[in-house]
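Subject: Interface between my chains keeps coming out wrong

I've been trying for a while to get a sensible model of this assembly. When I model each chain on its own everything looks fine, but I need the whole thing in one frame so I can look at the contacts. Pasting all components below, labels as-is. Any help appreciated, I'm running out of ideas.
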Amino acid sequence: MLPFLLEVGAEEIPDWMIPAALEQLGKDFQALLDANKLGGRVTRTDGTGRRLVLWAEGLIERQADSEEIVSGPPKAANPNAIAGFAKKNGVSVDDLKVEATAKGEYYTFRRQVAGRATAELLAELLPELIQKLNFPKSMFWTGKGGPKFIRPIRWIVALLGETVVPFELAGVSSGSETYGHRRLGVRGPIPVTVANYETELEKHFVIVSSTARRAKIEKEVAALGSAQTDAKLLETLTFITEYPAAILGGFDASYLTLPKEVLTMVMRFHQKYFAVNAADGTLAPNFIAVMNIPDDPEGHVVRGNERVLRARFNDARFFYDVDQKRTLLDRVSDLANVTFQAKIGSYLEKTTRTVALAQELGGELAAEAAYLAKADLTTEMVKEFTDLQGIIGGLYIAAQGGKPEVAKAVYEHYKPLSMEDSIPSTATGQAVALADKIDTLRSCFAVDMIPTGSKDPFALRRAAQGVVKILVEGELTPSLQDLSAGDAKLEEFFIERVKHYFREVKGYAYDEVNAVLAVGWADLKDVALRLEAVKAVRPTPNFEPVAAAFKRIKNILTQAGTLPDGAPDASLFNEAEAGVAAAAEQAAIKDGGYPAQLERIAGLRPAIDHFFDQVLVNDPDPAVRDNRLRLLNQLINEFSSIADFSEIVTK
Amino acid sequence: MDSFQETVFKLKKYWADRGCVIQEPYDIEVGAGTMSPETFLRVLGPKPWRVGYVQPSRRPADGRYGDNPNRLYKHQQLQIILKPTPKDVIEQYLGSLEAIGIDLSKHDLKLEEDNWESPTLGAWGIGWQVMLDGMEITQFTYFQQCGGIDLDLCPAEITYGLERIVSFLQGKESVYDIEWAPGVPYSEVRYFDELQLSVYNFESADVDMLWEALKRHEAEAQRLIDLYKTVEDPADKRRFPLLGAYDQVLKCSNLFNLLDARGAISVTERVGVIARVRKIAVGVAQAWVDQEPFRTMKEVA
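Reply #2:
Try treating it as a single job with all components included. I did that and got this:
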């Protein structure tokens, strides 16, 4: 039993791609071990920007010998065919056996296959395994037509026990030597073994364990101040460093007069710093940076970062001051020169449409906010910090003495940015956000810019998903059918988003969602209530059997084709039919909420079961048959206002 | 403390010692060192090439009338092209930083993903921005495509932002305070360049003239590209002035930038003008690759 270590040494791989690459490396290598019966299991994968590492244990030294059974012609076949089969396998007819199979007696040849050395097999398979790692954008570096990888591969460690698994990839020969931190420890190659790999690298300022690096960053950041929690930034820093250490820097408190959103954006996204909170929860004039060296005793790194941040904040102040020379209101007309989409027109035209829609959805204040919502696209600040669009508009309206409700609505009108994000907090904001998104969707669909597969350049799915989320969570009444304004493709697009929302975000089963939506989705608030009821009543013993019965009824009605008009004639009922009719009358009472109604519908079970035990719907007498169809049709119509139960998948 | 020019001397010497031809800047306005034919045309084809040069790079829209301590209309790039890329290219690059006095064991150096793309040149590459103590000092790119053509040798392009590196080395808050030569500040060398050209670019440039010039230089480039396609004689191919055509492309690119800074190009028009410049850039690049075998043959007597 042998341990195995693989390290692919590369130039700096983008941090955000590393976890996925490591996961695939682990899975693919395990699959390789299994497919080749090499024993062993992958125990860990880990890495930094410069190395993807895999550990495995329990590999056998050599595959077991095996026997391969090759089936030939039947015993009764022409001797030529039998001789041909023997020849093809490089043996004489005497070496063949006749074996009994389920289909009769056949000639077979049992080939003895010698197991191969694990090292030899790995040497053969590893280059392909490494090259098959998926990266969003890979590159050539040895020249056109050469190997592709995310960044150039510069060394490879491949050790099976104490021996090197020898192979070559992109001109790099695998070996037993790694490299440490780019500028600390030794600069040349470092010989390692499977056992001492990690400890040797630590001596040369590489912490291979991402868990350990993450913990070191978290601990040191916490010790330096009250940093704003930032999970994404923490991951970035974990994978962009090999030996991380946190430092505290400061900036002049006078910059705190700039919007905190701008300061935070510069620190987090441009500089990869943690922003720091003061004791009272406001922004402190500090930042925490994470370096890729263990310490900064002379303060070079702190001073350098402070200098850079000062320049960045000066820029931001410059943009802010320039922007205040004209109000947002004055800027609206400039939107005539800003293209929303070439085929659709300018942002000014979009604004005009959105204002009308916002007026309809949220009244005067919403219309006022919609008029100003896109004007910040002409500001220097948004040109520099695109992600702050909307937010800057809101801040400027407030700073320029606008109405607080309008400022807030503009500030939040891009929300929700994701399914996890919250919807705008005010009714006015919700109306503006809806109007903006609906207009984008309508105009794009009108010029046939409809997302297909993974292509969705205008993020229309996100826009539609946002509309659904605002309607449901804002408990708003406009129907998506009305908002689609007669565009059938848009309506279809919306229903997919509604399904997605209730399945993925709210966690309902797909058949529950289908059943509820099948009987109407004009009022999403009502859809939410009906779904809640179906989910609550579904585990009760009568529910699924009734659902199954409804499916059966539906099939019968479908097969019957044209259904007879009118209500069933009670005088023709036998005892079972009368029982169903009576039970239905009881169940039809609309008292209580949806759960109570559903429980009553589930209570139909005994009567329906009895009906199907006793009667055959397709009675030879057409009058009886038609009356039964009328009864069943009435039953379906009566009890399909909450959900179409035939959509429920029953066991 | 080294002056700006001293640092430039050291970097040039460093790369000269590593086999680079040290060139002077190209003498037509460009927006980046990449646009010099020393890069744009020489990265094409199978011939190895190593070159380094400081290229003053004009970005009209970035002008700030000499008021902003960190933004310049024209900044100085040191451009290094290594074709093919040596295996220890990053090690060599780090060595260049040490050669100008940066002790990398005491500074935080990170290579952060930053892929480069130039729509007007039909060029793109994969690489990083090199961050030193939180400041971007270099763009490092493995060229993949240029003029819409896949590159045979994938050269490395190292572009140093000289003002940033030197303000870092000299600890200056404003680029204008950098000492260019002993006793001579950057402001004395370049201030009026920034002020007057910001005024020209943002206020004075005659928009109609710029559009007209763009049209004429574009037509001249296209005329030459079309004409090249009709040439059959190898000797005529060899002497065909594609370099002249490329100069016209550079003129167009700069005129586009000027019009853009002047606010004369609407967002809608922008895409169209970029496509026009790209078309002639790609046209010259394709012709240049076609001409390669004729350039390498001995001159016909």
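Reply #3:
Confirming on my end. The CA atoms of residues 201 and 262 of chain B lie 6 Å apart.
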